[in-house]
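thread: overnight batch results

M.L. [08:02]
morning all. the overnight job finished for the chain we discussed friday. pasting input first so we're all looking at the same thing
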Amino acid sequence: MSEVYITKIAKFLPNEAIDNDDLEVYLGTVNGKPSKSKAIVLRNNGIKNRYYALTREGVPTHTNAEMAALSVRALFGDNPEELKKVDLLACATSSPDQLMPSHAVMVHGELPETGAIEVVSPSGVCCAGMHAFRYAWMSVKLGEKKHAVCAASERLTPVLKSDNFEDEVTRLASLEKNPVLAFEKDFLRWMLSDGAGAFYVEDKPNAEGISLRVEWLEAVSFANQLEPCMYMGSDKRSDGSLKSYKDYSAQELIDGSVMSIKQDVKLLGSNIVNLGVDRMIAVLQEKGVGTSDIDYFLPHLSSYFFESKIADYLKLRDFELTPEKWFTNLRTKGNVGAASIYLMLEELFHSGRLKKGDRILISVPESSRFSYVYGYLTVV
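M.L. [08:03]
and the structure it wrote out:
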């Protein structure tokens, strides 16, 4: 089989960076009152800046597909003719602009130069971007493709805006209940960001400069053991199953803000770290990779709250990764879901820090129903 290399990495971040003081300027206040959870969430997640694909007035500036396509175009910079060589496009997101057609074909529609090629659209949440990467990697490794592009993007701000919750708040107030949204709905408003990233995946490394050889990618799901934790377009029943938006009336969708993103934070906290770290260590042991074989550790974090939890659990498992090996840009780029790992690797790739022979461990968790993808790369 062919060796596989990431030869180019690019990103697209919409508009200017937004600091925490301006979040409710963009997203609005619910029931005319500042969020009670905002300060708590921001203190824990450690995010200082993020990007929104909308103006201060709430007007959209980009579609999800447009951002993904712009990140793909950025791979080739001043040489757009290179787009004609692309023979596979795999694009992922947890926030497509529509249920049909698929996200990836919408991105393809923004890239007419690529011609008629294979297009794949993995679904999912944070792991979806890694699944797109894995499909591109396998296609090149098998010799089926030679110039694959994978991309991941998110545009979640439209569902984070306060007007999506006003009707529910009004209904709760009329029932003389607490007119503050459940923490499971509100806290995600201060966690998420928009943007896109892309990899160029080929069977040969760059003639000049560095490339990243993909040694392996491993994925696992624990959905057979655990109920859904994060969900959208559904609501959770008492038995842990989900009731689909298709089974609600139009008014019920509004009354319960069913199309908002929800998270079972108790289920998250008791499972996300130990499941992911245990599986990662098991995979590394199977592959014969020890702590001395890792120069950079890139964990996708939804919040810096989990950084110390992961570090402590790694130490408990006698697999300590010292602080200088960790690399994340959550603080400055925000949590961009499926695109986060692309933005992290893009920043490290262009930082000037990497030298040939360095080895990079990637770890991407997905709390939606507890899935994980791990990757191991070598700088060549």
